[in-house]
Specification:
The structure is a single chain. By secondary structure, the protein is α/β, with parallel strands linked by helices. It contains seven helices and seven strands, in the order βαβαβαβαβαβααβ. The chain has a single domain (8-249), classed as NAD(P)-binding Rossmann-like Domain (Rossmann fold). Strands 3-2-1-4-5-6-7 form a seven-stranded parallel β-sheet, with helices on both faces. Helix 5 (156-176) links the parallel strand 5 (139-143) and strand 6. The longest helix is centred in the middle third of the chain and has 30 residues, at 107-136. GO terms for molecular function: oxidoreductase activity. Keywords: Oxidoreductase. InterPro entries: NAD(P)-bd_dom_sf (IPR036291), Sc_DH/Rdtase_CS (IPR020904), SDR_fam (IPR002347).
């Protein structure tokens, strides 16, 4: 059984989707959570649910921040430590997607934004967290993507960012062992608002589900369950693992499409 009782967890990108589901699940398992996102109203709703689901009625630390700015990354971490004084778990979930094809106008500016939030912010936050995680023999879970392993050319910059994140996971797992475990969960298409910029989100979801061997999309709680497992002592022998949860996308038969 997964036990996160009284563990302190910082979960980025936790105002919606996988991050919100993870924060609520961690709270229900007894953890003290710090949540961060760009939308204050969504953060407030997640915080209220975290408190109601917590067996101890712990109130989360809530930070509105945008990880496009390094100073917001630092401020988020410092606020977490100022309240909790310690850190057991870091979940690097905050990310943005891309819509610009290679060579299109503004593609390089979008690439810079994606790499800043999806990679640089993760590296900076990890750098800040490691001294505390070493003291607690803690764990890092990076939320990557199946596209770090399976190229999707129209979202080339997002693919690059997640491939970088997977390699960072492996490098840090080797560097920080045996003090800190570092693993990644790589979801496929998940039923969140991550693709909200699409003009027909439901059509995209239906098409994506039809291409999966399991003929369905993941639900945020399913990915959150994997994150909780990797963060807990139940995964005490795992580090440097890239754990795929993708409805079978990685092994889909391209000729069946």
């Amino acid at each position: 059984m997964i036990n996160l009782n009284n563990k302190v967890a910082l979960i980025t990108g936790s105002s919606d989707g996988i991050g919100a589901a993870t924060a609520i699940l961690f709270s229900s398992l007894g953890a003290k959570v710090s949540i961060v996102g760009r939308d204050q109203s969504k953060l407030d709703k997640v915080a209220a649910e975290c408190e109601s689901k917590s067996p101890h009625h712990y109130k989360p630390v809530v930070t509105k921040a945008d990880f496009i700015r390094d100073e917001d990354v630092v401020r988020t971490f410092e606020k977490t430590i100022s309240v909790y004084k310690t850190l057991d778990i870091l979940v690097n979930n905050a990310a943005i997607d891309g819509t610009k094809g290679f060579g299109e106008p503004d593609a390089m500016n979008e690439y810079d934004r994606i790499m800043q939030i999806n990679v640089r912010a993760v590296v900076r936050l990890t750098e800040l967290a490691v001294p505390h995680l070493k003291q607690t023999k803690g764990a890092i879970v990076n939320v990557s993507s199946i596209v770090g392993l399976k190229p999707i050319p129209p979202v080339w910059s997002y693919c690059m960012s997640k491939a970088s994140l997977d390699m960072f996971t492996k490098c840090m797992a080797g560097k920080l062992a045996p003090d800190v475990r570092v693993n990644s969960v790589n979801p496929g298409v998940t039923r969140t608002n991550f693709q909200r910029e699409l003009t027909d989100l439901e059509a995209f979801r239906a098409r994506a589900a039809s291409l999966q061997p399991m003929k369905r999309l993941a639900e945020p709680i399913e990915i959150a369950n994997t994150i909780a497992f990797l963060a807990s002592d139940a995964a005490s022998n795992m580090t440097g693992s890239i754990v795929v949860s993708d409805s079978g996308m990685l092994i889909a038969d391209p000729f069946a499409q």
